[in-house]
Amino acid sequence: MYVSFLVVYLALVGAIFALERVIPRTEAWLADDHQLGNDLLFTGLTEVFTNHGLATLVDIAATLAMIWLAGLSEPGLWPRHWPVLGQVVLALLLVDFVRYWGHRWSHTVSWFWRFHTVHHSVKKLWVLNTGRVHPGDALPLIFAAGLIAVLRIPQDVVLWQAAFTAYIGIMAHSNIELRLGPLNYVFNTPVLHRWHHSDKELESQHNYQHTLCIYDIAFGSYYNPRNQIPEELGIGEEFPSDFVSQFTYPFVGPRRANAVESPEARDG
């Protein structure tokens, strides 16, 4: 199943890459920002050292903790008797909940924001900077991996959940002209995610969810003004252009949080 996921993922990346050149949402984002190499390096580092290495450690620690607490080798916390579709939907809701709060804290807690700036420093969104994430920006992953491990969610359910999240993620970062209507109230669409990357703090403090947008709506962080797009993307300050400086930025860069607590979300 993992091979099938990878094939579909790469095919979708190729399709989005082509569509961005045929029907771009913002023509200016087609220009070279000289960050492709850095985008790919951060994507590779995070995939190898964080998504695999850290997730494995969290899984082992959570499993040992549950065995110690419950005296069981297979805690019965997950409804394995449900249909697979129902399990996948439940996994999406639970994982998105913890990732929502982890992501939100990445914007409101100064230490976490310093790592998250790497992802938000870009001046344009397109399919190949989706994975531009510093390995230290792992808080949502830690929470999600811990939840998966403690509940002992079956591997096939986790793969379906992860695939759906990954596909929505690359779509959310795409530079494609789309009219999605009611889907903007269900999924994390490009329309919503562009506001999250705005260089204006009170705009970027919205639309935190990775896959769905139920929690943004429930917790007052949904933002979707009609027929508008953010004027500029970025973090509102200078950011280094070379990889080494970007990688070390969280350790030597400014120690400010991205913004104060979000105001009332505006629903357009």
List keywords for this structure.
268 residues; mainly alpha; 10 helices; globular; disordered C terminus
Structure description:
Helix 3 runs antiparallel to helix 5 (139-151) and helix 3 (84-108) crosses helix 6. The protein has helices at 2-22, 36-70, 84-108, 110-120, 139-151, 155-172, 190-196, 201-204, 214-218, 243-252. By secondary structure, the chain is an all-alpha fold. The chain contains ten helices and no strands. It has one domain.
Instruction: Report the portion of residues in β strands.
Output: under 5%
Give the SSE string: HHHHHHHHHH
Structural class: mainly alpha
Stretches with pLDDT under 50, minimum 5 residues: 66-70, 255-268
Total DSSP E strands: 0
Shape: globular
The helix tally amounts to 10
How are the SSEs placed, and which strands pair?
Layout: H1 2-22, H2 36-70, H3 84-108, H4 110-120, H5 139-151, H6 155-172, H7 190-196, H8 201-204, H9 214-218, H10 243-252
Helix pairs in contact: 1-6, 2-5, 3-4, 3-5, 3-6, 4-10
Question: Can I get a quick summary?
Answer:
The chain is mainly α.
